[in-house]
Amino acid sequence: MDHAALAARAAAVRHNAYAPYSGFAVGAALLCADGEIFTGVNVENSSYGLTVCAERNALFAAVGAGRREFAALAVYAAPIGADEGPDYTRPCGACLQAFSEFCAPDMPVIRLRSETEFTVTPFGELFPYGFTLSEKE
Asked: What are phi and psi of 83, to 5 degrees?
């Protein structure tokens, strides 16, 4: 799957987000090594600590379905009702840490600014030093 097609999946699912507090709808599409795609959206909660990011929702759904190898991630955040975000979406530190358990440093992270405008950054460039209980190097 090409980057534009995965980006389109993240853009499409973003409209399902539940974001009444931040006003930012986030969609994520995670491409597994076997070609299956898992999507996720941010789900906010009035008890802010219970909010879950789109990226982790997609990752946890994939892991729950038995997937452990991933080929690419696309992420798109924009204000509700807007077609463009303020910048190219970057996953938060908690999401990057969760992905560090499974992703190679060269895995592409497709960061969208709009439904058609994106940039691609290697995972390791976004998160060069994650926490680990064992040496993976």
From this structure: -105, 5
Structure tokens given for 123: 């995972």
| Residue 100, token pair as written in the block | 């560090």
Write the pLDDT tens digit of every residue in 94-130.
999 999 999 999 999 999 999 999 999 999 999 999 8
* DSSP category for residue 80: T
Q: Are 53 and 42 in contact (CB under 8 A)?
A: yes
DSSP 12-59: HHGGG-B-TTT-EEEEEEEEETTS-EEEEE-B--SSGGG-B-HHHHHH
- DSSP for residue 137: -
Catalogue the active-site residues: 55
Q: Please report the pLDDT score of residue 134 as a whole number.
A: 76
- Asked whether the predicted pLDDT for residue 137 surpasses 60, the reply is no
pLDDT in tens, 23-71: 999 999 999 999 999 999 999 999 999 999 999 999 999 999 999 999 9
| Superfamily per CATH, domain 3-126 | Cytidine Deaminase, domain 2 (3.40.140.10)
Amino acid type, 107: M
- Cβ proximity of 34 and 87 under 8 Å: no
CA distance 74 to 31: 8
